[in-house]
């Protein structure tokens, strides 16, 4: 093989390495905050650590791959197009507050799921079955955590390289983390 036959292959590989992950537009729900909070939130008996273990087990049972779990929040991805983030906070009287937020990925966009049947049938009912506990609707005025957007899973080598490059890059001039 001579060097002239290797040159086109090298150019293709070099151009492929420069690819940047495409941007995705986020489409939030058009439903009101109160309505969205009601479909996404439940009260569950148990301390927040026990409930979080049940949430992670349920997500695994439902086929989600956990992409991040930290400080009372867990994110998972299923079939690379369905993402869910769940926040668990300690409530009152031995109860924990569980809030789920799901998004569906399509080419160029990520849309928030705002169907109460989705949350009930595809998360809260399986959570109750996995943990053997009854869930209740969260009453209004309860200290409900904010919905967290699910953390994306980095699926391809190009996405991993782009994320690593972005993390290693110094901040642009005038953009520092130092506070006055």
Describe what this molecule looks like in 3D.
This protein has a domain at 31-154: 2-Layer Sandwich (TATA-Binding Protein). It is 36% helix and 26% strand. It is built from five helices and eight strands. Strands 1, 2, 3, 4, 5, 6, 7 and 8 form an eight-stranded mixed sheet that branches. The radius of gyration is 21 Å and the shape is globular. 23% of the residues are buried.
In a nutshell, what does this entry contain?
The protein is of the alpha+beta class and 180 residues long. 36% of the residues lie in helices and 26% in strands.
Rg calculated over all Cα atoms: 21 Å
Helical content class: 25-40%
Give the low-pLDDT segments. none
Structural class by helix and strand composition: alpha+beta
Mean pLDDT: 80
So what's the CATH class of the domain at 31-154? Alpha Beta
- What is the H-and-E element order? HEHEHEEEEEHEH
Please give the structural blueprint:
Blueprint (H helix, E strand, L loop, with lengths): L2 H15 L7 E3 L5 H8 E5 L2 H14 L3 E6 L2 E6 L3 E9 L4 E12 L2 E4 L3 H16 L4 E2 L19 H12 L12
Index terms:
36% helix; 180 residues; globular; TATA-Binding Protein; eight-stranded mixed β-sheet; alpha+beta
């Amino acid at each position: 093989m001579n060097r002239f036959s290797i040159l086109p292959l090298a150019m293709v590989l070099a151009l492929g390495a420069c690819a940047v992950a495409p941007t995705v537009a986020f489409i939030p729900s058009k439903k009101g905050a109160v309505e969205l909070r009601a479909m996404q939130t439940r009260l569950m008996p148990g301390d927040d650590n026990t409930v979080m273990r049940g949430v992670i087990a349920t997500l695994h049972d439902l086929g989600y791959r956990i992409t991040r779990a930290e400080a009372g929040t867990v994110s998972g991805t299923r079939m690379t197009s369905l993402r869910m983030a769940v926040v668990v906070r300690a409530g009152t009287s031995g109860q924990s507050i569980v809030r789920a937020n799901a998004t569906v990925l399509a080419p160029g966009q990520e849309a928030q799921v705002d169907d109460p049947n989705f949350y009930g049938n595809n998360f809260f009912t399986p959570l109750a079955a996995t943990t053997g506990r009854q869930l209740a609707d969260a009453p209004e005025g309860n200290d409900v955590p904010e919905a967290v957007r699910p953390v994306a899973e980095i699926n391809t080598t190009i996405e991993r390289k782009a994320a690593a490059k972005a993390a290693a890059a110094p901040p642009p001039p005038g953009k520092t983390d130092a506070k006055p």
